[in-house]
Amino acid sequence: MLTRFLLLLAAVLTSLQAHALEPALAQALAAGDTDARIEALAKATANPDDKTVALIQALADDAVKIKAGDKSVQVWLVRDGKGIDPATGTESAVPDDAEDVINNNRMRAELDAALAGLKLLSPDEKLRREALKTLEAETDEARLPLIEKALAGESVASLKDQLTLVRARILLGSSDRAKRLEAARLLGDSHNANTKTVLVERLKDETDPEVKGVIQVSLQKIEASLVWSDRLGALFSGISLGSILLLVALGLAITYGLMGVINMAHGELMMIGAYATYVVQGLFQKYLPGAFDWYLLAAVPVSFAASALMGAVLERSVLRFLYGRPLETLLATWGISLMLMQLVRSVFGAQNVGVENPSWMSGGVVLMGNLQLPWNRIIIIAFAAAVLLAMAFLIGKTRLGLFVRGVTQNRPIASCMGVNTARIDTYAFALGSGIAGLAGCALSQVGNVGPDLGQGYIVDSFMVVVLGGVGQLAGTVYAALGLGILNKFLEGIAGAVLAKIAVLVFIIVFIQKRPQGIFAMKGRSAEA
Fold this sequence. Notes:
Elements: H1 2-13, H2 23-30, H3 34-46, H4 50-60, E1 64-68, E2 73-79, E3 82-84, E4 99-100, H5 105-119, H6 125-135, H7 144-153, H8 157-171, H9 177-187, H10 193-205, H11 209-258, H12 266-287, H13 295-317, H14 326-348, E5 364-367, E6 371-374, H15 375-397, H16 399-409, H17 411-416, H18 421-443, H19 458-468, H20 473-494, H21 496-513, H22 524-527
Antiparallel strand pairs: 1-2, 1-4, 2-3, 5-6
Helix pairs in contact: 1-4, 2-3, 3-5, 4-5, 5-6, 6-8, 7-8, 8-9, 9-11, 10-11, 11-15, 11-18, 11-19, 11-20, 12-13, 12-14, 12-18, 13-18, 15-16, 16-18, 19-20, 20-21
């Protein structure tokens, strides 16, 4: 880690008029009371050379030893069991009675902040972004020279804006009234909750009326921004939850909405898709570690196929004898769900298994300072939309979809027209089961994968289908997104438990007033 860090800083540090690390400064950094060491650290980071950076990193890594003499203190960096003089870089033996440098929590925080400040000079943009996250609440004026140096050399506009805000936070505590006024105005453009905290703390100590007035105006601007970011965050969370409910309910819209089968094993078919993703991940880790980032693309068709195959087996072996008897399909599929859960426990164990996100699903998009939209959630929303469009095309525009709709609306007439209704039933049930597998693949990227995975979604998915209108894909979309958004906004007001109860009461009242759901089924199937 130290070697990589020094290489990244080398291009910058060689171009600076850096002061060589003096033995006295090295001793002051490693020995003495905490206040004296922090003062020496501020002096060392004002204009560092590569040896200074190495010593600070070694202190943070607890890789420094000292030995007190009569007039001075000897300091060694310890690397691979060898001692190195921090000032000269030469190797020297470490005495057996040398002591480790002990850093208390305050000193560790100062060392971490100093290293973050040094990373601001790195040519690596990723390192500079990481450093800014560490320094976003910094208020120590000793960091100002380094931050101003980084600000002068920064070429990325977004990072320059963040550096300007960090500098303003530090200047807010300046003894110069004009600097405090400038800082208070600049911080009003921040959308960060940490900035609000800094302004509130400063408002308590500020004595100048004009500066206090500017701070109060900036606080009002930040609070308004945070309110909007909270609303947008709740909206995004609601859409994210709605997209997951949509994926789960799409398969049920076929098996229950179009075929009339109350499939209580739908959650377990989703669980099979999640475990199929886990198996594909394991195969990539073992046989294709270099292509691990793309395992999820291979897991999508595998999870669909695994759940679709299981669905076809269930339909051919059990459910084809129970069409037209919804209560018996409920009991049969409930028993099947218990069997599938026990099968998974026997094969994979009762504990949850870990499914990792590919690197391209890590991180997120930062909006308004404190609102981050995770990439895994964004991709799942896009994936749900793609599955919905593919399903709508299949049902509405293909020969298979025409047969499914024909059998659903009037089975005897479809059979008279030459449609193999038994085969269409199998295809339709396998399709609904395969979509449940895709939902499990998506859920593996945002939550735990375990034998009970499907139990948490089966009731919600039935509510989505019933609320949207039985057999209506458009209603399923509206119901899933509507329930997701409503649930997240109510959570912010009343909490998770009361929000769930309120949503359930809303659905009960809505179904009482409109039993057919948002969209009523039309045609012969409705009359039947």
